[in-house]
């Protein structure tokens, strides 16, 4: 039994491809992300310009025309039907202490814009320094602690604006 893929091109054209259709494609790789395709005695030059593995979306240039292509298989359809999305990120709105400890330093201020992985604060716990990095891009709404504070497990440390 052949797998089927639901394909959307430029969000306007939807069609299904079987694994057999893909295997029967007369395509030759000419360079990294470049292909020569022969279909019904017509030659096509294709380049994959961009790809996003998480969303299974691709930007493809064929004979100097650019197309946005989305490819989903049966599992993607099932996950969508269940109300989940592959690659979707959850929004973290606050950071809480994972364990009791002592705040050694705070590297941000309220109202400051931060990028994902920017260092926010350092918590000393069990004789180890734990650096808390920003889980997302955002703006610091409030800082519930100050340097030198002793904190308990699950105590609010930093809150992000929504």
UniProtKB/TrEMBL annotation:
Q: PROSITE patterns per the record?
A: BIOTINYL_LIPOYL (PS50968)
Database matches in CDD domains? biotinyl_domain
Q: Which residues form the signal peptide?
A: none
Q: Does the keyword Protein biosynthesis apply?
A: no
Q: Which Pfam families match?
A: Biotin_lipoyl
Q: In the UniProt record, does the keyword Ribosomal protein occur?
A: no
Q: Which UniProt keywords apply?
A: Biotin
**Domain Lipoyl-binding, first and last residues per copy:** 83-161
Query: Which InterPro entries does the entry mention?
Result: Biotin_Carboxyl_Carrier/Decarb, Biotin_lipoyl, Single_hybrid_motif
Q: What is this protein called?
A: Biotin carboxyl carrier protein
* Species of the source: Bizionia paragorgiae
């Amino acid at each position: 039994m052949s797998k089927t893929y639901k394909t959307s091109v430029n969000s306007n054209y939807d069609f299904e491809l079987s694994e057999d259709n893909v295997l029967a494609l007369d395509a030759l790789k000419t360079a990294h992300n470049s292909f020569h395709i022969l279909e019904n005695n017509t030659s096509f030059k294709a380049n994959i310009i961009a790809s996003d593995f998480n969303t299974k979306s691709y930007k493809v240039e064929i004979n100097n025309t650019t197309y946005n292509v989305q490819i989903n298989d049966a599992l993607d359809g099932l996950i969508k039907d269940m109300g989940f999305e592959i690659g979707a990120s959850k929004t973290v709105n606050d950071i809480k202490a994972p364990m009791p400890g002592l705040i050694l330093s705070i590297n941000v201020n309220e109202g400051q814009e931060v990028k994902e992985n920017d260092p926010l604060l350092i918590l000393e716990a069990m004789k180890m320094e734990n650096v808390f990095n920003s889980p997302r891009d955002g703006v610091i709404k409030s800082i519930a602690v100050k340097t030198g504070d002793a904190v308990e497990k699950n105590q609010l440390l930093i809150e992000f604006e929504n």
